[in-house]
Amino acid sequence: MIALAFFATILAGYLTDSLIGTRFNWPDAGAIAAVATMGCFLLWAVRHPRRG
Fold first, then answer.
1. How far apart, in whole angstroms, are the C-alpha atoms of residue 12 and residue 16?
2. Which of 10, 21, 24, 41 has a CA 20 to 30 Å removed from the CA of 49?
3. Under a CB-based contact definition with an 8 Å cutoff, are residues 26 and 20 in contact?
4. In the predicted model, is pLDDT for residue 3 greater than 80?
5. How many CA atoms does the CB half-sphere of 32 hold within 13 Å?
6. If pLDDT is split at 50, 70 and 90, which confidence band does 22 have?
């Protein structure tokens, strides 16, 4: 799960920065998307604790 969160965060940041950041001249779009993606993973981990 940790590796999935890591790669999804990197991918979301890179794609958002390359697609939205350059097109709309928004230099920090990738960082905002990466933080939002990691926040989603953290919220999911808190709301679904492991049993056992």
1. 6
2. 10
3. yes
4. yes
5. 9
6. very high
